[in-house]
Structures are given as C-alpha cells and as structure tokens.
UniProtKB/TrEMBL annotation:
Residues 1-37, 172-191 are annotated as: Disordered. The gene is LOC118424684. Residues 303-354 form the BZIP domain. This is Cyclic AMP-responsive element-binding protein 1-like isoform X7. It comes from Branchiostoma floridae. Transmembrane segments: none annotated.
Amino acid sequence: MPGFGGKQLEMDGSIDDKSEDSPSSSGSSQPQNLSTVVHTITAVPTAIPNQPVQVQSVIQPTQQSVIQAAGQIQTVQVEEDGEGHLVRTDPDIEKRREILSRRPSYRKILNELSSAEAPGIAKIEEDKEEEAAITSIQTTIPSYVQTSEPTEPPSHQLPIIYGPPVPLPPARMQDSSKVRGIGDASQDSSSYKKVTAGQTIQIAAANQNELTTQGLQTITMTNAGQGAVTAAAMPAGTTIVQYTQGDGSQQFVTVPVSISPAGEVQAYQIRAPSSLPAGVVMATPTGITSPQQLAEESARKRELRLMKNRYKNREAARECRRRKKEYVKCLETRVAVLEQQNKTLIEELKSLKELYCHKAETE
DNA sequence: CTAAGTTCTCGTCACTCGTT
DNA sequence: AACGAGTGACGAGAACTTAG
C-alpha cells in the first residue's frame, strides 16, 4: 500500500479527546498485534511553554496492517524529566489493552473524527462526491452478467438473465456453452448440456414470461467447486441450488444430480417452482446414524448458511471498504491541516523571535 | 515487447460484539 | 441462543510497473 507505509503522523494535542475513544482496529481476534507494533513518540513543538508535551503515539504500519494502524492513534502523555528527555506517563497498559481489544467501527471513528474536524475542510462535499461515485459503481452491472433488455434473444445466444442478477466472479463465470435455460428443464434429458462439476453456474429461462409466471429469476447452482470442505459437505449426488425470486429474496433447495466419472454433471432435475415451499428446502437425510453422516449434515448446513450470507456479506464488505477509505481520507486531510497549522505556528514563532530580537537591539 | 514483480480490488470466510 | 452487522485475513484475478 504505497502512500501509507512509513508515513509518520505528526499531530498536536488538538484531537486528544477524540483519540482517547478511538478504538483500535486490531480486534480481539488479533491480539498479537499488541506485541508486534512499534510505538514511536514524536515530539511536536507547541506554542505553550512549561506544560506537559502531548504527542501522538503512532503505530508504525506494517505491510498488512497499514490501515489498521491508522486507527491506532492513541494519546500518550509525556513530560520532560529535567534533562530534556521525554518520559512517558500514559495510563496503565491494561486499560490501553482493553481499548485496543475492542473492535472498531469505521463509521464510529469517522463520525468522531468528523465532529472534531477543523472548520474549512470541505468534507461534506467530498463525501457527497464519494457517495455519488459509489452509487455509480454499485449500479454498474458487471460485464459478466447478462442484463439485456427483455427482448427476443437471438437464436445463437444463451438464455438471458433478467431481474436482479446474482453476480458471479469472473473466475466462476457461467460457461454459456454448457448451461441450459431452466425453462427447458422439463425437456428430454438427452438435450441437456453438460456442466463441469465444481463450477458455479447460473441458469435462467430464455423466456421472461416463463420466469415471471414461475417466480424465478436467477438460479445459482453450486457444486463441489469450493474446496474440499464443500466437496465433503455435499452428499454424493446432490447439490444446492440457490434461486432468486421476483421480490429479490433468495431461496435454496437441494437437487439431485448425476456426475459422470469425467466430472461432468449429466443431468439435474428441479421441481416446478410452484411446488417449492417458501424458505429453505432441504432434502433431510433420514436416519442419520454414523459420524460421517453427521459430519456431512453439519457441513451441508454450514454450506447453506454461508450461501445465505454470501450476498449480504459481499455488500457489507463493500460498505466496510468504503468506510475505511473514507476514514483514511479523513485522516490524511487531518494530517494536511495539522501540518499546515504547524508550519504557520513555526512561521509565527520565527517572526515573533525576530521582532523580539530587533526590539532588544534597539533598546 | 514481454515476463516478472507489485499493487489494487473484490469476494469469501471466520470471528467478535451487540441486540433480540 | 440465534441472528445480523462489522471487520480482519486471505486468495484470486486485474491492472499497473519495471527490467531485460
């Protein structure tokens, strides 16, 4: 992360009241950070003599924790020991650890920073701009999701996905040559296209009317492609199908499939949507007795839970990153402002000194 | 021009914390 | 206890940079 690494923040005590509350971003899940961070104390000239110097202890960012470190600005009280050395007299370590162990919220930190922001910083404007930018990003539909107008699809093209898409990462982009529209599911199985096991595929009908009447918009079929855990999770011959209804709600159903030795899904059958009960539908294995079955069942439940959370979490991660960026921007702005203030104060001190010297000479 | 290296971005999972 | 929100860590792929 260029631009953050090694950047030394020099701040005066103007935000001490806020930094006291600023939680560390090294959550309790990473308490080891406490022992690895390097605290450097930077003395900043202040215009107020004979007072304890308040400086910021800035955690030296490491490659992986640059941004986290930005949230770890703490107040450290230091006093001169009479020989010009700064002696740290900050509150006890335990309290600090307690603060550090609390999980941060960038929103909270940002709000605190914003409320303490020096006037003249065009922060709201900036936020608006950023918000607009984010909106435009979020409304940009990934190129790998087909969102054509619901017109007659060209005969050479694949079924078109209508409605809120379930974006798939490019790596798992549906292989259009291997996917058949769900509307064809009732047809002769010999006409099924082959789907390589281990892929996440997206299925949609070529006919929108068919979709709307059936209440289905998109279907994502996940098989054993997400690692060994998933592979073990799914009982042989079944897969979980995720589908999105017209109202955007997501549903899940397990579907029996047959996989060829070559690893290709040869056939899959999905019940008519009208027969699908609301919510999650699972083919509950009967008579689970062996530990292996129990493990399979729990793994399957886990997979289902993850699948349900995936979309939300994706959005949450985006939001989190946006807030983080906003927060870092805010910090950088603050640094710029404080640096400017520092410069001004130094200049002022210089001119006052000159004035004083000049006056002393003339007297 | 291209291969290798670096940085950026995104999705996913695991985990914690607060709320119900 | 269950659930949702928030966030760190990690991996993968895209985008960019640099050396030969």
